[in-house]
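Our platform keeps sequence and structure together, in a single record for each protein. Nothing more is needed to write down the fold, since each code stands for a local backbone conformation. An entry from our holdings is shown next, in its original layout:
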Amino acid sequence: MTGVTTLANRTQFDPLGAGALLAGVLAACLGAGALIGLAAGSAGIGMGIGALVGVPASVAAVIARYRGV
């Protein structure tokens, strides 16, 4: 039975979940950056900084979530 794959041998990686986690963390960082930037005087600059922080934060969140899979 070399061609049989059992459920125990299958990985639990979910590409849709990973993409949603990426988008969710990035959107949260953009929103927080926009709010902080709005309070400081420029929502656009705050969103830019939020994007700079959000991209590595979202990648780190996916790595942390799916590390053991």
Summary: The helical segments are 15-40, 43-66. The longest helix spans residues 15-40. Residues 15-66 form one domain.
